Write the structure tokens for this entry.
Amino acid sequence: LQERRSIQEILRFPRTLEFTKEGTRFIILLFVIGFAAINTGNNLLYLVVAMMLSLIVISGLMSESTLRDISVKRTVPRRVYKNSPVAIMYSVTNNKKRLNSYSFTIEEVLPEGAAFAPAYVLKLPARKTSEVFSSYAFSKRGVFTLRAVKLKTRFPFGFFLKGRRIDMEGKIIVYPSITPLKTTDM
């Protein structure tokens, strides 16, 4: 039996792209210089616009090479308690033959009632595996379904925040919070 996928899953783009504050300023500056180049016909301004456009292309290619061919495995602890921080380990593997991956985060796509700190990888050499940790806290008890993780990078220039979603099913059972017993003196 094949699982039916929702329309939202079918139409999901393989990558997400968001502008950072610096990227928005860069694009505005690009349009201002481009408008000035068209109005004045100054060849130097055309060269500056071409250089700025090439930086955007290089940024896209390098961030794509960072996120491509990365696999992630999640390890969750056996016991998780409400309002207690817990460490979750990610085994991150770079499956590329020659290229390293630089400066990306691993963020969990969590249901409501959970908070986390993303795991950060500075450099992952080609054909290597690294283990990174993330801290979680659950404000509710019960069964939480973990659906996916998202790799995000601002590499190399910080103009854009590019993301890639990796679907990984998993469940965490969150037990009631631990409270210390009160002792009575007799």
About this structure: The helical segments are 7-10, 21-40, 43-67.
